[in-house]
Amino acid sequence: MKKTVDISLPVGPMHPCFKEPCRIKCETRGEYVLAAEVELGYVKKGIERIMRGRPWQEVMFLAERVCGICSVIHNFVFIESVEHISGIVPTERAAYLRVIVNELDRMQSHLLANYSYCYTIEHETLAMYLLNLRETVMDQLELITGARVTCAFIVPGGVRCDISSDIADELRSALDHIDAELTRFIRIFETGPLIGLRSKGIGILTKDAAIESHAVGPTARASGIDNDQRSTHPTYTALGFSPVIRQEGDNFARIMVRFEEVFQSIRLIRSALEAMREGPIRGGGTIKAGSIRYRGEAPRGELLYELTTDDYGRILEIAIQTPSIPNIQVCAHAMLIDAQSAADITSIFISSDPCIACTER
Amino acid sequence: MLSIINYIREFLRPHWITTFFTAKTAPLVTPPHFRDFPELTDKECTHCLACMMICPAPEAITVVKREEIWRPEITKGHCIRCGLCIEACPEDVLTSGRILAYKKEEELTLQGTFHIEIDQSKCMGCGNCTVACPVNREIDPALRSSGTSTSDEVIMRVDTGQNKVLHEEKCTGCKTCEESCSNGAIRVARIVEALQGGEK
User: Fold this and answer.
1) B135 and B97 within one domain
2) What angle do CA B93, B94, B97 make, to 5 degrees?
3) Nearest-angstrom CA–CA distance, A19 and A157
4) Under an 8 A CB cutoff, do B33 and A191 touch?
5) Does the keyword Acyltransferase apply (chain A) (predicted)?
6) Which of A27, A128, A304, B136 has its CA 20 to 30 A from that of A65?
């Protein structure tokens, strides 16, 4: 008689499919996953400790170095939190410029996440197509801010630099290019039978489980939860923002939510370019003493900054809660359970777009 | 079937076919708008230390006198290429990417006020900070060779074994004192404001 042995299967910390080091410890019976736990702690930076006692002009650079893939939103949320403490309101043009750069950053992050997923399910052609398309977005970020990743674009009361009409035209034509290319790639993704076999009905996160385990971002929105911090942001509401929601809750839905959010970002940038009027890009204002809890929507979900400043504008206490913290736990305790194949462990994990650098800070 | 049709449509596009047969890696060129390490322009540095004040990276920029001329020097391993020094410099001595052009066009500035804090429980009155302070040395040349000063015009001096701040308003926020303090007793709070349209 064949003996069934329970195996403890470690995946990682170094794995070809992972962008960053982490270990998934799975309890399996054959290929069937009984339980999983994600073990972290390989890339701890202690960045919140370094931030303490420093003024905004130093902390804004540390904040965007929390994560290299979603650097703009860390800068965005940090600066908006100190602005809320000090009662500074950004100028109208600066508010739209912030949205443009933030949405470009979201596009590149989502394209990278979907590249990773396609790579994990061994569809390298589509993966490389997406990575190539991401370069177009990175070029636009570089054109506007001067740097591809650490943009350092947002300062209290405004932004670092304006965009001229030439840059706006170049941005519009790049958006048209991305729109056309991505429509074709999504058609390949949606109709691919092998992609469907690896994605549809795999790693299901039900709405109840998502609510119970506090999933955020595209992972939650793919399970039918209307949770997007941009819905309450004044600039986004002025641009007519409404979140993308799907009901299936499987790998396919999570990837499709990200694809649809790229189109949504394109629409937001286009309408921001239309709505923008000439005007100042900086309003000035110094940072006052106070404390705040402020939320923003990062590409992976809700990002929370809790900070205290003193009379001289220095950051006394700071705590950052990044979206990958709940999402990694949701993945381990709700999505990986009952996976039918060990090959699905990596694809389910990558579909929740985990960012280890964010999680460990 | 639909999938196969999609692949055929993808690979039969004229653009795909031409790029497939004429594939060529684009040359690696740094675009002119890239925010690289700051470089010097032909303008004259006035030793105002605004660049050192705003710099977020430790010891990335220092203003030094070589052959009787003050000029900022960048330590490339420390510089994070943020470009704040270019915006803060009132004399347009530094340039990188498009920042200097934007700054001139839209009159962007970064201005700061400063507050010196000395933790008396940590300060041992060694006078390192008073000697290192470039403004102190300009005001009282005696501080270049000794730690004591009789001048009342200096920013700070050691008095009865403890460091005392006399003229906080003369501070340029350059952080030299912070870096020279062996106990971490002195901190300079820099309250910086990002402005547009000249002086407020």
Assistant:
1) no
2) 145
3) 35
4) no
5) no
6) A128
Range of the domain at B143: 115-189
Does residue B130 sit in helix, strand or coil?
helix
Asked if residue B94 and residue B119 are part of one domain, the reply reads no
Q: What is the ipTM of this complex?
A: 0.84
Residues 6+ apart with CB under 8 A from A107: A134, A137, A178, A262, A265, A266
Does residue B6 sit at the A interface (CB-CB below 8 Å)? yes
pLDDT in tens, A146-199: 888 888 899 888 898 888 888 999 999 999 999 999 998 998 888 888 888 888
Q: What is the CATH number of the domain that holds B54?
A: 3.30.70.3270
Total residue length of chain A? 361
Amino acid identity of residue A170, one-letter, is: E
Annotated binding site of A: 48, 67, 70, 320, 355, 358
Instruction: For residue A85, give the CATH number of its domain.
Output: 1.10.645.10
CB contact (8 A) between residue B80 and residue A150: yes
Q: How much is the pLDDT for B198?
A: 60
Contact between A142 and B54 using a beta-carbon 8 Å cutoff? no
Task: Report the number of distinct structural domains present in chain B.
Answer: 2
What long-range pairs does A342-346 form, CB within 8 A, spacing at least 24?
A342/A9, A342/A26, A342/A28, A342/A31, A342/A33, A343/A31, A344/A33, A344/A198, A344/A202, A344/A203, A345/A9, A345/A11, A345/A24, A345/A26, A345/A33, A345/A36, A346/A11, A346/A15, A346/A17, A346/A18, A346/A120
pLDDT of A96-153, one tens digit each?
A: 999 999 999 999 999 999 999 999 998 888 899 999 999 999 999 999 998 888 888 9
Number of domains in chain A: 1
Instruction: Give me the pLDDT at residue A2, please.
Output: 47
Instruction: Name the DSSP letter for residue A230.
Output: G
Residue A342 is predicted with a pLDDT of: 84
